[in-house]
Amino acid sequence: MSNRVMSKCSEVKRLLPAWLDGELAPARRDEVAKHLAACVVCRAEMAALRSDRQALVSARVPGPSSFLLTRVMAEVKRTRPARIAMPIPALRTAVAALAVVVGLGIGVLLGRGLAGSRSPSDAVWPASYTEPVVVDVYESVLGGE
Amino acid sequence: MRSANGGRQVAVSDPEVTTSPASDDRELVQQACAGDLAAFEELVRRHQRGLFSYLYRMTGNSSDAEELAQQALVKAWQSLRGFRGGSSFKTWLYRIGINLALNFRARTKPTEELVESMPAEENPAEEFRQRQRDVAVQAALAGLPRDQRTALVLSVYEEMSYREIGAAMGKSVRAVDSLLFRAKQNLRRLLAPARERGIV
């Protein structure tokens, strides 16, 4: 077998799975078919691929139980589709930006409102109120040394 | 087809149930988005078998496959309004199933449950041979890396084109071609012992 034929064989072997799956472009498909007509080695490879596929489809697979549909629909009735999609991505971006602006605005307004009010130290505490004892965390963890 | 096997239906394929024109699906999706539960139920009826079958091939047992199929279908309902129609509903649904299967950690050994859940052939000798075949094929599939197994199962059992497989797996057609080439090479090696024993 010449080098040219050998390289053609390795090329065809690489293409054979896609050829069998009907995924090659027409020109390539014809080229492979022509080669197969003349090459016994590649024909054997094609037969082996077909045999492997046959082995796969010969194995049984169970179907779903009759309860799958019932369970899915019971769950579906309890929930709604999660969100209403906005068809235009730009619109989604605009809505998100608007939400951020509104959020910031509310934050600023709240901040101003708080600045105008009395500080906690101005508050009138009940007579029984005593200042909490602040424990030094490091001290308690390290044993006060 | 019904069996006396826990209400499970067994068939290699059932074109009446698994095939559905994509355009019809699209109409059903629109109706379901508008709140029509019957339309969504019809979508479930059409795709549950194919989805289950794919998940069975990925997990190796029917209870895990059924649980994942349920999760995928409910998730599809919950995010139905996010379905843009860029691919078919089937491809979109399988994408959900694929993600669930990829993140799934098997609780039982893949071939353990096969013996219990398959229906019996009338001829005991043939039933024995068929069970050996079922187990050998499932074991060979389980021996493939997950992405190769996914591509192979979608190609052989779901008869998806490379483009559809790519859309479902989030990969290019070239990547799918490469995955399938390697999957088939590995499958040959993995099936060899069963072939030598005349099982497949």
Automatic annotation (TrEMBL), chain A:
Location of the Putative zinc-finger domain: 9-43
Family annotation (Gene3D superfamilies): Anti-sigma factor, zinc-finger domain
Annotated signal peptide: none
Keywords for this protein: Membrane, Transmembrane, Transmembrane helix
InterPro entries hit by this protein: Anti_sigma_zinc_sf, Znf_put
Transmembrane spans: 90-110
UniProt keyword Membrane present: yes
Entries under Pfam families matching the protein: zf-HC2 (PF13490)
Name this protein carries in UniProt: Putative zinc-finger domain-containing protein
Native source species: candidate division WOR-3 bacterium
Lineage: Bacteria, Bacteria division WOR-3
UniProtKB/TrEMBL annotation, chain B:
Keyword Transcription regulation applies: yes
GO molecular function, one term: sigma factor activity
Annotated region (Disordered), positions in chain: 1-24
Pfam families: Sigma70_r2 (PF04542), Sigma70_r4_2 (PF08281)
Residues covered by the RNA polymerase sigma-70 region domain: 43-109
InterPro entries: RNA_pol_sigma-70-like, RNA_pol_sigma-70_dom, RNA_pol_sigma70_ECF_CS, RNA_pol_sigma70_r2, RNA_pol_sigma70_r4_t2, RNA_pol_sigma_r2, RNA_pol_sigma_r3/r4-like, WH-like_DNA-bd_sf
Annotated ranges, domain RNA polymerase sigma factor 70 region 4 type: 136-187
Keywords: DNA-binding, Sigma factor, Transcription, Transcription regulation
UniProt feature coiled coil, ranges: none
GO BP term, pick one: DNA-templated transcription initiation
NCBIfam families hit by this protein: sigma70-ECF
Recorded family membership: Belongs to the sigma-70 factor family. ECF subfamily.
Protein's name according to its UniProt entry: RNA polymerase sigma factor
Organism: candidate division WOR-3 bacterium
Source taxonomy: Bacteria, Bacteria division WOR-3
